[in-house]
Amino acid sequence: MRWWCSAQSIAWDWTWRPYVGVWILIVLMAAGYLLLSRADRTDPDSGANHGRGWLFWLALFLLWAALDWPLGALGGGYLASAHMLHFLLVGLVAPLLLELGLPTSAFARLARRPILLRVLRFLTNPLMALAIFNAVLVITHHPRVVDGWMATQLGSFGIDALWFTAGVVFWWPVVCPVPARPRFPDLARMGYLFGNTIIAGFLALILVFADLPVYGIYELAPPTGWLSSREDQQIAGMLMKVGGALILWTVMSVIFFRWYRRENPESQVAGPPPSHAGVQG
Questions:
Q1: Residue 163, H or E segment
Q2: pTM for the whole thing?
Q3: Helices (H) and strands (E) in the chain, counts
Q4: What DSSP element (H or E) covers 61?
């Protein structure tokens, strides 16, 4: 039994092979959330927290689906397209939903810890967060890194950890209310998210239009019988381009319409006040 997904030289089959490390990680994250939720029950806004708690559980489910069998195994050493879907879920979708689903008490505790808040303010400064995410994006999609790290369970775990951590940092200034960023208004947030499409789009074009396979680990992988290595790589590039843009443009659209309703109050329909943890605006 293996503890994390990585490339293997055996032929692909549909025999279920769970990854122990993934299950331990998911259980620990679920336990941590339950502890935070218990502490949050005394919060007067806890009703709103319970209403969005399902986002955290959805994030946990998607994280498990990306890391465990079969997607984790396919992305670990068989298909570049599965590897790219793996990246989108671990590096973009799961961190976003996880932060949206965190209870109020988690942010209240951060606000009471000045040293931790200072570190967080530095790491999640929009320019720093953008630089961190794109540096991780470029490094972890470099052929030498992919071919070298994905060959071992520890290396594959390292790539997943970098993706998830960079995703948390990237979404933090957009989603989380602590630390407060009065100089980062909605229009700036939309520009921030749009800026992230540039480097990803360039990498995607390389994968789509390259004459030869970029990653040796997927070119030489045992064939699955579904796609050629060139087709697989092109699908991976399209996933990065279209899938990543879809995620970012969806969030930009939410921010835009919230900004528009605030700037045009006559267009608003009376309803409950928004919770303070969510896409900031």
A1: helix 153-175
A2: 0.91
A3: 14, 0
A4: helix 46-67
For residue 78, the 8-state DSSP code is T
Q: Which amino acid is at 2?
A: R
What pLDDT shows up at residue 268?
Answer: 59
Whether pLDDT at 41 is above 80: no
Higher pLDDT, 183 or 247: 247
Return d(Cα 139, Cα 220) in angstroms, integer: 21
The tens digit of pLDDT for each residue in 92-139 reads 999 999 999 998 888 888 888 999 999 999 999 999 999 999 999 999
Tokens of 76: 């670990």
> Collapsing DSSP states into helix, strand and coil, what is residue 95?
helix
Annotate 226-252 with DSSP letters as a single string.
Answer: S--HHHHHHHHHHIIIIIHHHHHHHHH
Q: Which residues contact 175 (CB under 8 A, 6 or more apart)?
A: 96, 99, 100, 277, 278, 279, 280
Residue 249: C-alpha distances to residues 168, 177, 193 (Å): 18, 21, 8
**Residue partners of 133: CB distance under 8 A and separation at least 6:** 166, 167, 169, 170, 196
Cβ(105)–Cβ(36) below 8 Å: yes
Which tokens go with 240?
């990065």
